[in-house]
Amino acid sequence: VQLQASGGGLVQAGGSLRLSCVASGRTFRRYGMAWFRQPPGLEREFVAGIIWSGGSTDYADSVKGRFTISRDNAKNTVYLPMNSLKPEDTAVYYCAADLKDWGSRTRYEYDYWGQGTQVTVSS
12, 50, 61, 82: which has the fewest Cβ within 10 Å? Predict the structure, then answer.
């Protein structure tokens, strides 16, 4: 499975971006998907996750109410619209796929990773 993340960029605080992650190589629909991020000098952290059916989502407290994860299985794509961005949202954002579809927040449960897309929020 190959994951290709896109949509990052530079935005002012309070602005919005939408990240996308396209999967290829194997059947996409059976995977749980998630977004993680890695701020400069810090560990990679969970941001949001969605199970294969789309019926359950999960968010880190720091992004709840501002970010929304969704997926379009017909397009093998998962999305992360991000609103009301803050400087502390600055990070490299990674999408990840979990073959077990557990909806885990733990990075080590994920089997495939995209290359990351940089999000920079200026104050």
Answer: 61
Q: pLDDT (tens digit, 0 to 9) for every residue of the chain, 123 residues total?
A: 899 999 999 999 999 999 999 998 876 568 899 999 999 999 999 999 999 998 999 999 999 999 999 999 999 999 999 999 999 999 999 999 998 888 899 999 999 999 999 999 999
- Alpha-carbon distance of 40 to 112, in angstroms, equals 22
Coil, strand or helix at 107: helix
User: Read out DSSP for 38-56?
Assistant: E-TTS--EEEEEE-TTSS-
Q: Dihedral (C-alpha) 105, 115, 51, 119: value to the nearest 10 degrees?
A: 70
Provide, for the chain, the percentages of residues in helix, strand and coil under a 3-state DSSP scheme, each rounded to the nearest 5: 5, 50, 45
Distance CA 89, CA 107 (A): 18
